[in-house]
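Reopening this ticket.

The earlier resolution said the output was attached, but the attachment link was broken on my side. Pasting everything inline this time so it's all in one place.
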Amino acid sequence: MLVKSTRGAPEDGYCCRRLIVSLALCCCCLVGFAQEKGPANSRLPSTDTELKFWLNNMVRLHGFSTEEVVQATGLTAEAVTMSLERFQIDREAFPAKRVGLLMRPYPGGRHPRIGFLDGAIRPQRETKISVFTPWAEQDYVVIDVPEALWSNLGLTYLAHTHVETVFDKQGVELRTLEWERCSEDSLNLKRVLPNGIVYECRVRCHSDHVRMQLQLTNDTKHELTDLRVQNCVMLKAAQGFNAQSNENKTTHGTYAVCCSDDGKRYVITAWTPLHRVWFNERCPCLHSDPVFPDCDPGQTVFVEGWFSFYEGENLEEEIRRIESLDWEQSFE
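Inline output:
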């Protein structure tokens, strides 16, 4: 008969219990520093690694105040201060020497619009990226991709609270997501909607431009039509571009363009196939909004997007240069 030895069991059991307690304390550390009832749109980082990433993103890159970090994370002001000291994150340490463009997930906590705030309540960060301008530290635009998605079913997705979507009317709440951070220059997101529509967003930051792609798969039993997309470039945090006016914005075919106050610099975006180009002076923002082809059950369709900055005296020549790249023909 085999008899299992119990030699060393009390000590092993004690060590095991200590390990379990230690792990529990680590897991509860952030929760213990969270407010009892955090801001409605806050997202508490789940690990130290995530906390460090988002604090670096919020404070070092976006220049967030302590209160803005509180709004974004749900942590107490004391916990924010302690964490910044622990991770040695300095508000003044923006990466001044940059090779090419800098892109990061937008962290939330600070509304990306100046005005028309009642038209974008509780903006969700999983559709938003920040692209920092080449000209100034902590100046950036926020690209909302997608901000909204329509179909023959009605308003099918909205990245904030405003007009009711088809799921709002059904009392179905969509779960919050986060960007998949493949690298510093590569972000992906996939959302499966309750009715079987699946959209995926891919964003790639290159040295002088950002390429975006939206993919929609129809896993419903019926054809989808009128698949209009709204993608928004918000200019609040880009000094020289953020006047609440449309006088500094122009249309060039599929390209929506905003000119700086001094007339020397430009923000350029385009999507194809194009639905319409338009601007909203209250936000302020610019749109080159695409439309997906009609989509049969089981089919996948795509729209392609471009974003870049330009400094120079010949905008038309720059747009011709971008067009010559045939960027919409291939992604990455």
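Reporter confirms the inline version is readable. The longest strand covers residues 140-151. The helical segments are 9-33, 48-61, 66-73, 77-87, 166-169, 315-324.
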